[in-house]
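Field log, afternoon session.

UNIT: design team B
ACTIVITY: writing a sequence onto a fixed backbone
BACKBONE:
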């Protein structure tokens, strides 16, 4: 069989396919490098704290050139933002897994998933939580995005609740336990925290399983 020449109609398609594969390979390499850098940043934060997170230390820890890191993140603040986004994805996965396993048995599955997120969040190094707070302090834009996201969560909790006030109390109890632990301010032992989270998740202890969500009339504006 004769080989196809440059003018063969099959040649452009092959070239296009090769270019697509090359583009996909580049994207994959970029994603792998970004994930590697984030994991290195988490290691640095756990070991050295927020002050130890620099592009030089990140380059040494990750094995990625400083130029490559600057191309990915631009600034140290960009690294912190990437860590926040990574954390958000991890929390979303926790909620997804919890709902898949326990959601059908809960009268207020959204609240239960949020409590489960805070329960699992305690397992991360406290320095990661401090890095998240540092990013929020440095960036008003991030704070506004977080407030918008939190507002949506609050509304979902209210819509899902038989007693919205009680749901808020359980939610903020869970977040308070988690933040105190992550910031190194909690005197509670791990066993006590586990017992408290188990109780917060147990709807029978809060009367949630005996009532249905209330249909509230829209609030009138004055």
């Amino acid at each position: 069989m004769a080989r196809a020449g440059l003018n063969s109609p099959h040649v452009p398609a092959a070239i296009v396919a090769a270019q697509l594969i090359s583009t996909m390979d580049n994207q994959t390499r970029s994603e792998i490098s970004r994930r590697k850098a984030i994991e290195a940043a988490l290691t640095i934060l756990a070991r050295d704290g927020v002050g130890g997170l620099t592009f030089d230390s990140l380059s040494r820890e990750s094995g990625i050139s400083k130029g490559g890191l600057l191309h990915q993140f631009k600034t140290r603040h960009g690294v912190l933002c990437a860590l926040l986004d990574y954390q958000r994805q991890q929390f979303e996965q926790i909620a997804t897994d919890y709902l898949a396993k326990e959601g059908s048995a809960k009268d207020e599955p959204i609240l239960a998933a949020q409590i489960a997120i805070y329960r699992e969040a305690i397992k991360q190094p406290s320095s990661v939580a401090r890095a998240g707070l540092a990013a929020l302090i440095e960036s008003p834009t991030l704070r506004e995005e977080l407030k918008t996201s939190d507002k949506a969560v609050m509304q979902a909790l209210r819509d899902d609740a038989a007693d919205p006030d009680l749901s808020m109390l359980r939610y903020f109890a869970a977040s308070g336990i988690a933040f105190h632990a992550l910031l190194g301010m909690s005197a509670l032992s791990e066993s006590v925290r586990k017992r408290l989270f188990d109780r917060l998740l147990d709807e029978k202890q809060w009367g949630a399983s005996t009532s249905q969500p209330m249909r509230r009339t829209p609030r009138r504006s004055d």
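LOG NOTE: Residues 10-48 form the longest helix (39 residues).
NEXT ACTIVITY: expression trials, pending approval
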